Amino acid sequence: MASDFLPYGRQSLGDDEIAAVAEVLRGDWLTTGPSVTRFEADLAEHLGGTPAVAVTSGTAALHVAYAAAGVGAGDEVVTSPLTFVATAATAALHGAKVVFADVEQDTGNLDPEAARAAAGPNTRVVAAVDYAGHPADLDALRTVAESADALLLEDAAHSIGGALNGRPVGSIADVTTFSFFATKNLTTAEGGAVASPSPDLLANAAAFRNHGLVREKAAQRYPDEGDWHQEVHAFGLNYRLPDVLCALGIAQLRKLAAFKSRRAEIHQRYDKAFAGLDQVRTPVTRAGADPMWHLYPLRARDGRRKALFEHLRSKGIGVQVNYIPAYWHPVFEDLGYRRGLCPNAERYYEEELSLPLFPGLTDSDVDRVIDAVREFLGA
After folding, report:
1. Do 164 and 44 meet the contact criterion of CB atoms below 8 Å apart?
2. Residues 310-319: what's their mean pLDDT?
């Protein structure tokens, strides 16, 4: 990769993270140790006190959350198609039918009225996605979920540190999932978390991420077997996030406010540069929303997205497209899903281009992106 190549996202690490990881490597616990507990506690403080369990990825978080909610064969999960495929795939892996509902034209988030029309008697979960870091309309979606006797899940892979009507992301839905992948708003390299105010949902999540093991004698079927004894009452998987990565997360959480501020500054510079240009649409911020901007989704009108993508890549600017509608993937096509299902999501995808956005971008980097876009547009 050329030294002047600008990726669309990048981790922001320093000496604090290196020292934190080194301390764990010199200690006794590489995994299942005190750094996991501390990371979960520190994370809860950022979620308005909502407890959380750490897992190995954002995909694992979704798989764990659906398991905690009891999703299985015969159930339906209503969700947005404008998301990384994992939001839907992990529900399908539990045997559920995924019902895609269309998105709002401006935010790209799940449209409450479309979700209401898609919900039915078999709906177990309504899964919203905070696209690009802008919180979904969770209050309206909660009403939809409650009317279907379903749980509300917030896929907050993009939005940790954000808020809606003064409430932090992670404190609003029945269960919230996070991703700490390298390009996300904070990173543990790979990693994620599941948060819930419900003790039962949280206990289910904690059990599923650790093989379903039951070690407490009071809960065991055969408690007199011996002090070594452990049992599995329901199947789970190993989704434990190790101490060495939790230490990285602890250091990153201390910087979350600074990350948010810098991302907002970059976002505002893009907004100002492209304001009033008819050839593109810029992101919106709804009243009451305090986004943690993970992406800057510029939308190119008149079918020019691909040409703009290629122009910027030729300039060493690593733009990306987020995302192909989930049901366009052949795995869903083979299940009978067809294009045209969610017109707003498809139109959004056909226009969307994610510009570089991460705290380490300098103002001159941002100006370079702006100049290249405006050059293409002839502005």
Report:
1. no
2. 98
206-232 per-residue burial string, b: 16 or more CB within 10 A, e: under 16: bbbbbbbebeeeeeeeeeeeeeeeeee
Q: Look over the chain and give the mean of its residue pLDDT values, rounded to a whole number.
A: 97
DSSP class of residue 210 equals: B
Residues 237 and 293 in one domain: no
**Domain at 355, CATH number:** 3.90.1150.10
Q: Which of 197, 225, 253 is the last residue of a domain?
A: 253
Amino acid at 354: S
Helix, strand or coil for residue 60?
helix
Pairing of strands 296-300, 280-281: antiparallel
Of the candidates 253, 269, 302, which is a domain's last residue? Answer: 253
Are the C-beta atoms of 321 and 352 separated by less than 8 Å?
yes
- Let me know if 255 is a catalytic residue: no
Please identify which of the residues 184, 217, 260, 315 carries the catalytic annotation: 184
Q: Which of helix, strand or coil describes residue 83?
A: coil
Residue 164 sits in the same domain as residue 216: yes
How confident is the model over 203-242, as pLDDT tens digits?
A: 999 999 999 999 999 999 999 999 999 999 999 999 999 9
**Whole domain around residue 275: which residue ranges?**
256-377
Cβ neighbourhood burial of 3 (10 Å; 0-12, 13-18, 19+): exposed
Q: With residue 110 as reference, give the H or E element that holds it.
A: none
**CATH code for the domain in which residue 127 is found:** 3.40.640.10
Of the candidates 356, 129, 365, 359, the one whose C-alpha atom is nearest the C-alpha of residue 256 is 359
Helix H or strand E segment including 293? none
> Residue 55: CA atoms inside 13 Å, Cβ hemisphere, count?
32
SS3 23: helix
- Contact (Cβ atoms closer than 8 angstroms) between residue 129 and residue 155: yes
Task: Report how far residue 263's alpha carbon sits from residue 259's, in angstroms, rounded to the nearest whole number.
Answer: 6
pLDDT (average), residues 22-30: 97
Q: Are the C-beta atoms of residues 82 and 325 closer than 8 Å to each other?
A: yes
pLDDT tens digits, 103-117: 999 999 999 999 999
